[in-house]
Structures are given as C-alpha cells and as structure tokens.
Design a protein that fits this description.
113 residues; Arc Repressor Mutant, subunit A; 3-stranded antiparallel β-sheet; 11% strand
Length: 113
Amino acid sequence: MFRKPGTLLPLERRLLEAAARCGGQGVYGFALAQELAGAQGETKLIAHGTMYKALDRMRRAGLLSAGWEDADAAAEQGRPRRKIYRLTAAGVRALEDAAVSGVRWPGLGEVTP
C-alpha cells in the first residue's frame, strides 16, 4: 500500500483512539481488537496480522510503547505473558492532530525491509 510518509491510516487512528480509551496502564493486543470491534458495533474482530503490523509500525514511529507484562502475574493466572501497548506523548499529539490535514509523523508510511 502506498501513502504519504507520516500520515495515519484509519486503522492506526482507531488503534490510537482505543489505546487512549484504555488509559495509561496500557492494553494488550486482543483487548485492543475487542475494543475496536465494540466501538464500531462489529461482531467480528480485526485480523490479528493486520492489527499487529500496524501496532509495530506505530511502535517504531514512537506513537506507542510496548513491553511484556510481569511473568509472575501471567503465571498466577495460568496464561502466557501479554505484550502491553501504551500511548506515548507523540501518540497523543498524533491523535490530537489527526483531524488536521497535512499533519505527518516521522517513521509512519516509510518502507523498511
């Protein structure tokens, strides 16, 4: 897909909005997919391959931070660790500026091997 470098795709904007709604404690990928579906009144979740590629793109651009949750907390609940995504200050600015045409964010839309 071709786009102007630094522009937010609709999916990226929706992911930033969902991360903002989930607050500063962060949110894991599946919860983001559920949040997106619920916000749109949809019954089907977004394809995870599509969503995780967008999350990684936004992480590399500095709009989101990501880290693994505590291993002990996951083990207590008998499940694998989850990767937690948090909105960064740059992500907040991108979300606030998304309605303004011509606003670009370095690193978004650039082709990397």
